[in-house]
Specification:
This protein is 65% helix and 13% strand. By secondary structure, the chain is α+β, with helices and mostly antiparallel strands. The radius of gyration is 30 Å and the shape is rod-shaped.
């Protein structure tokens, strides 16, 4: 009988210790401490670097981010999806190529379109030549840029579909001009890409 009383006293003491330890967990939570597992911490760090890269280079695509950060595309897509669901970045579709922008209304839809177009070196050259009014026909653009007329036609079709360039037929020639809606955005963004 006396062993039962000792056992009962020991259980009472242990239960008091257990209750005290249980409430110490809440003290750490109240003070702002939390347990972090290492893999998610590393993932968060990668996402911070990816976000900083997108913020510094708006309109960048997956291949540029992957090559710069030495990440596999699958891992990068995973982190980009998380950043999108957290509304930190937004994706912009540019003729089948997904480009990423910071999501805080930094860029209007026109600016996103212009940035996406100016990412390509050849379209950037073409837009500059038309903007400076150095040349505005298919033949002149082909001669100055050193690209075939058929390639210029393809680029111009893409620019016309995006709405950045207007086409005016004059006889056999097609005269190209910058769409006035995008002119200010092109002039503003072109300085960043020069």
């Amino acid at each position: 009988y006396w062993q039962f009383l000792i056992w009962l006293a020991a259980m009472q003491i242990l239960s008091i210790i257990d209750v005290i330890l249980y409430f110490t967990k809440f003290i750490f939570i109240i003070l702002g401490f939390r347990a972090a597992d290492h893999p998610s911490t590393v993932g968060t760090l990668k996402r911070k670097y990816i976000y900083a890269f997108i913020k510094a280079c708006p309109g960048t695509c997956i291949s540029e981010i992957a090559s710069d950060m030495s990440l596999s595309r699958g891992s990068l897509r995973y982190h980009l999806n998380i950043l999108e669901t957290e509304n930190m970045i937004e994706a912009h579709n540019d003729c089948g190529k997904i480009r990423y922008f910071q999501n805080n209304s930094t860029y209007s839809e026109e600016e996103k379109m212009v940035i996406s177009v100016l990412q390509n070196e050849m379209t950037r050259k073409i837009v500059l030549k038309i903007l400076k009014e150095e040349c505005n026909t298919n033949g002149d653009l082909a001669r100055i840029t050193g690209v075939s007329k058929s390639a210029i036609t393809r680029y111009m079709k893409q620019l016309n579909e995006s709405g950045l360039i207007n086409e005016n037929k004059m006889g056999k020639s097609t005269i190209y001009s910058i769409n006035p809606v995008y002119r200010d955005a092109i002039e503003k963004m072109y300085l960043k890409f020069s």
